[in-house]
Design brief:
alpha/beta, six-stranded mixed β-sheet, three-stranded parallel β-sheet, 32% helix, globular
Length: 175
């Protein structure tokens, strides 16, 4: 059964524990992603939970879009299998999608039971309503619901996904 709200407090606890209050090398990498302050934005639908760490500029863009009832990340993802997309994911854990530049296409086709990391994801699309929209997701975590992942254990999967992200950063730190 889907809860109607996001447990923002729990998400912030996970982010603080894993990322924001973590070791200096993790904080340094976060700073390099944002170049300064960041904001956290949450998305929750019947299909997924998304947690996005964004630059102040991106956060302000989303706030304006929200006030106008537009979706925050046009063409970032679809959950409709028949729609074409650059990446198609289903029953996938720890998909790490980094430094992509997508133009006028749907980025992700997200099926059930996926955990996805987006880092430095750039996307642009032209829409009838908004014209050219360009955005950057500095760091994002998407967890889709299915037979294994549900509304109640999604936060545990988020914690594991962030831990995996840190593991990848540490492994790449010495290369």
């Amino acid at each position: 059964m889907l809860q109607n709200h996001i447990n923002e407090e729990r998400i912030r606890e996970i982010l603080n524990y894993r990322l924001l209050n973590g070791p200096k090398n993790i904080k340094k990498h976060l700073y390099s992603l944002f170049g300064g302050e960041h904001q956290v934005y949450f998305v929750k639908t019947q299909h997924l939970l998304g947690v996005f760490l964004l630059s102040q500029k991106e956060y302000e863009r989303i706030e304006i879009y929200s006030q106008q009832n537009f979706i925050p990340f046009p063409a970032l993802y679809t959950t409709i299998k028949s729609r074409p997309a650059i990446f198609r994911l289903e029953n996938t854990r720890n998909a790490y999608i980094k430094s992509n530049h997508l133009k006028n296409s749907i980025g992700l086709s997200i099926g059930e039971d996926c955990t996805i990391i987006l880092e430095n994801h750039h996307q642009s699309i032209t829409t009838k309503e908004l014209g050219l929209v360009e955005y950057n997701i500095n760091l994002g975590f998407i967890i889709s619901y299915g037979k294994e992942i549900d509304d109640y254990n999604a936060y545990e999967y988020l914690d594991e996904l962030i831990a995996y992200t840190i593991k990848v950063w540490r492994e790449n730190e010495f290369k």
